[in-house]
């Protein structure tokens, strides 16, 4: 159960901050955001605040922000339609009732002659009960809603739609999702540095494990190592390399403790790591705590893991890794179970790495991903005009189908690897 909770919290946080990036920058650009969703499929929970409905959906495989203009907007109000109109204090149409008009006795019934609910914002028609020959124009409020089967949907004037914004605004609204994943990872690494300290490369002993040979031999946290078996050491890496190369061999540590020099013999235990026998004495590297250095550490760790993940992607593309090496939600769940046993700090680091991974995956120039959309924006910038929406939509549809197929293959591989 702890693993399930940890997985849900980590997954939820990664998707939440990713979609929050899209939401913040879309709203900053003035785009009407209809829905902010975590998950796909049927709604489990929802509430509405201002213009946006916030939902949690059944299938935990991602999330989305539904922006006005990305899908075909609204129902077209055609000539001859009979609709009900409710007005605000400024005598602008606030509600357009498409059916069940009898439930709105205060509405004014109008037979539509012409309507534009995107650009010019008006409805022109003949009002029932008035002079049938009098054609009246009714101005529409920018925040008006369409009411169909009792459900209200806010109209999206063209200047509130995604496609009306500048290329820079649209690019930022899409790029902000992956960007937030990198920022989240950076913040997690900074928090870890503040609580745990920043790893130091000084030849000084950090915390000792209770069952390690270092503690049994009499070494203590804070001991400064001058040499091992007569070989001078100047960094923590020097200490590690000598210990790893001498499994089972007694080593004489020359240390300084509280200003006093002493010799302590220690025998590293032997451990098999991927077929190689190495020595371990049960000592962590030293750490230092500094708020300023914690900020630098957060940036460096984010950069390091970004390069590592790109390197692994490169190996996958060049055939050094097979598709069987990829993991989906099942593999991530199993890995989360393993990491969770090591403690909250390891779990936080795991979440940071997953966040970077999610950011990078979304930036790949593949249809249906954020990177695919950014690629279309780049083409638009080069040719000076956007690509046809229908063609772009078809490319993204095919890309999404291929991604779902890949997800199924990876998930099946995970199930076979871990459970069969």
From TrEMBL:
Main location: membrane
A single MF term (Gene Ontology): metalloendopeptidase activity
Cofactor: Zn(2+)
Protein name: Zinc metalloprotease
Annotated TM spans: 172-195, 343-364, 393-412
Entry EC number(s): 3.4.24.-
CDD domains tied to this protein: cpPDZ_EcRseP-like (cd23081), S2P-M50_PDZ_RseP-like (cd06163)
GO-annotated cellular components: membrane
Record family assignment: Belongs to the peptidase M50B family.
One biological process term in Gene Ontology: proteolysis
Classification of source organism: Bacteria, Bacillati, Bacillota, Bacilli, Bacillales
Matches recorded under Gene3D superfamilies: 2.30.42.10
Record has Chloroplast as a keyword: no
Keywords, ordered alphabetically: Hydrolase, Membrane, Metal-binding, Metalloprotease, Protease, Transmembrane, Transmembrane helix, Zinc
Organism: Mesobacillus boroniphilus JCM 21738
Subcellular localization: Membrane
Peptidase M50 domain mapped to chain residues: 6-406
Its membrane topology: Multi-pass membrane protein
Keyword check for Membrane: yes
Ranges in a coiled coil: none
């Amino acid at each position: 159960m702890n693993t399930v909770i940890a997985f849900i919290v980590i997954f939820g946080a990664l998707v939440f901050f990713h979609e929050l990036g899209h939401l913040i920058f879309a709203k900053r650009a003035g785009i009407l955001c209809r829905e902010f969703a975590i998950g796909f499929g049927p709604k489990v929970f929802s509430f509405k605040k201002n213009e946006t409905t916030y939902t949690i959906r059944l299938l935990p495989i991602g999330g989305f922000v539904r922006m006005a203009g990305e899908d075909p907007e609204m129902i077209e109000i055609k000539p001859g339609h009979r609709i009900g109109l409710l007005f605000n204090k400024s005598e602008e149409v606030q509600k357009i009732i498409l059916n069940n008009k009898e439930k709105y006795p205060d509405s004014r019934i109008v037979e539509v002659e012409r309507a534009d609910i995107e650009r010019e914002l008006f409805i022109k028609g003949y009002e029932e009960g008035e002079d049938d020959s009098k054609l009246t124009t009714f101005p529409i409020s920018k925040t008006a809603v369409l009411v169909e089967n009792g459900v209200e949907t806010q109209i999206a004037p063209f200047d509130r739609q995604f496609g009306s914004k500048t290329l820079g605004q649209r690019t930022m609204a899409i790029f902000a999702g992956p960007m937030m994943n990198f920022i989240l990872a950076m913040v997690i690494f900074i928090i870890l540095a503040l609580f745990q300290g920043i790893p130091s490369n000084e030849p000084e002993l950090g915390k000792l494990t209770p069952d390690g040979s270092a503690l049994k031999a009499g070494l203590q946290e804070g001991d400064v190592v001058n040499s091992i078996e007569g070989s001078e050491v100047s960094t923590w890496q020097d200490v590690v390399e000598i210990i790893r190369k001498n499994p089972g061999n007694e080593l004489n540590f020359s240390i300084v403790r509280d200003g006093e020099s002493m010799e302590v013999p220690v025998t590293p235990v032997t451990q098999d790591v991927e077929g190689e026998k190495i020595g371990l004495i049960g000592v962590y590297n030293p750490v230092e705590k500094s708020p300023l250095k914690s900020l630098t550490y957060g940036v460096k760790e984010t950069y390091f893991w970004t390069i590592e993940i790109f390197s692994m992607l490169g190996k996958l593309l060049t055939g050094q890794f097979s598709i069987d090496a990829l993991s989906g939600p099942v593999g991530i769940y199993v890995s989360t179970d393993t990491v969770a046993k090591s403690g909250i700090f390891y779990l936080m680091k795991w979440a940071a790495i997953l966040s970077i991974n999610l950011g990078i995956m979304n930036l790949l120039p593949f249809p249906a991903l954020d990177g695919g959309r950014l690629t279309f924006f780049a083409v638009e910038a080069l040719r000076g005009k956007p690509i046809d929406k229908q063609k772009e939509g078809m490319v993204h549809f095919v890309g999404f189908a291929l991604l779902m197929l890949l997800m199924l293959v990876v998930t099946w591989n995970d199930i076979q690897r871990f459970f069969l």
